[in-house]
Design a protein that fits this description.
By secondary structure, the protein is mostly helical. The chain is built from 13 helices and no strands. Helix 2 packs across helix 3, helix 4 packs antiparallel against helix 11 and helix 10 runs antiparallel to helix 11. It is globular and about 60 Å long.
Length: 234
């Protein structure tokens, strides 16, 4: 049933508004000139967009972390995240500790496959940044020299790019992923450009994975729907 059909059958819009919270719906009301029916429709449309982006972002995240892990293993060994010679900055060390704590609490093995899966997208993207302060020091880590040049550039075999040129689109996609994970509005973003960026970066890692993501993605289909069709489908 479309949202319009639901609203025709369920007239108590105010109850729904309170359940979703007026603060959350306020963004959608502002976009629709305080038309509650249209705001709820936009909310549903935003949810459909988030669902559509979940698959492509998952494909990118998994391929990114596996590619970076592979290169870090070649440089520092399979337990690189515990190696004191691996110059992770203070924030990265904290995230590793949190991931280990979560695995222990849930009684999962604290081994490389589980650690790789437990570390967040933000952690992996941060390895392509400049590096923050080192643990117990006021000196900044130099990820360019410690990670990018000796190892991590090889995670992107299909592009010749500077570290910052790889980090920038991934960091922007990190904000998209976080907004989706926290059920926030994404409809104001350039979502076609976001989808293109996902495919572009995935292609830098593995063109086969990029094509697989593109083949299964519903994002173009949903973005291509005219507004009147969106009302009948979502």
């Amino acid at each position: 049933m479309s949202v319009n059909g639901f609203l025709r059958e369920h007239a108590d819009r105010e109850t729904l508004l309170m359940s979703l919270s007026p603060e959350r719906v306020a963004t959608y009301l502002a976009e629709t000139n305080d038309d509650l029916d249209e705001a709820l429709h936009l909310y549903t449309w935003n949810t459909a967009l988030c669902a559509a982006f979940y698959g492509p972002l998952q494909g990118l995240e998994v391929s990114l972390r596996n590619a970076l892990h592979r290169e870090l293993v070649s440089r520092y060994g399979p337990h690189w995240y515990d190696d004191p010679d691996c110059p992770l900055d203070r924030g990265a060390r904290s995230r590793v500790a949190n991931a280990r704590e979560n695995l222990n609490r849930n009684r999962y093995p604290v081994d490389p496959p589980h650690m790789v899966a437990a570390l967040s997208f933000g952690f992996w993207v941060s390895l392509l940044g400049k590096g923050g302060k080192q643990a117990g020091s006021s000196v900044s880590a130099n990820y360019e020299m410690a990670f990018w040049r000796p190892a991590l550039h090889r995670a992107f075999p299909k592009v010749k790019a500077k570290r910052g040129d790889v980090h920038e689109p991934l960091d922007y996609l990190r904000t998209l992923r976080n907004r989706i994970a926290h059920h926030e509005p994404i409809f104001k973003r350039d979502l076609a450009a976001d989808h293109t960026s996902i495919l572009m970066v995935a292609g830098w890692i593995c063109p086969v994975t990029r094509d697989w993501i593109a083949y299964h993605s519903r994002v173009p289909e949903i973005l291509a729907l005219p507004k009147e069709a969106r009302s009948s489908r979502f």
